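User: I'm writing a tutorial on reading structure tokens. Could you give me a worked example: one chain, its sequence, then its tokens, then a sentence or two explaining what the tokens reveal?
Assistant: Sure. Here is the example chain.
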Amino acid sequence: MGCLSGIVNFVLYVVNIVFLIVGILLIVLGSIMLADINRFDGYGVVESTNTIPICITVLGALIFVVSFFGCYGLFRQSACMTGAYTSMIFVLFILQLVLTCWVFVNKTAFLKDMGNLVTTLWNNNDYDAFGVLEVTFGCCGNTGYGNYGSQTVPGTCCGYSSRQAACPSSIYLAKPGCNGEFVDFWYDNMDIIRWSGLGIVIFELLVFLFAGALTNCMRRENAGRQVSA
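And here are its predicted structure tokens:
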């Protein structure tokens, strides 16, 4: 194998190690998102918001498997396995591109569902689940402390685990509503997912091109050995 091919082989090997890590991170991120959403299981909106986390988890698993296959093929210096890896990278590139475009297009609908979820919790008087939101996100009420009206503002608005704890007005007056905080949390996560996905798409395209060139190089070398033999 020539010097240039050796460099490409080494770079692709390192890239696949990076992809292995990225795949694991996507699996973890998707699992965390699913766990956060399923915490509010029992509300109709949950089923419609599971799609993106599931897609992210599945994509992470695919990236992990393909990268592992690529590492093994490059290590064995097999033109057949490297060619198969190149084909899988192309398929993965298409899937990633479709998913990234889908996330870009459905961002607004997803965030609306998140806001509706919080409103549903509030309207159903699910104070246990709402207490978790108030403590986790440092918020109070659906749109603000005023939602409690004449009721006593619970201790969860001040960050206490018990709703019966006294919550002074000097603390809860400055607390934002949980609806906005929850939507902002997912807004920030969606931005990370969208732009990370776009970066991975570009990265995968470069890997596909390099892997294809390396596969052709391996096949030419194998053909040359057969002729000389």
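What the tokens reveal: The two ends are 17 Å apart (CA to CA). Helices lie at 3-38, 45-49, 51-76, 79-123, 127-137, 169-172, 178-228.
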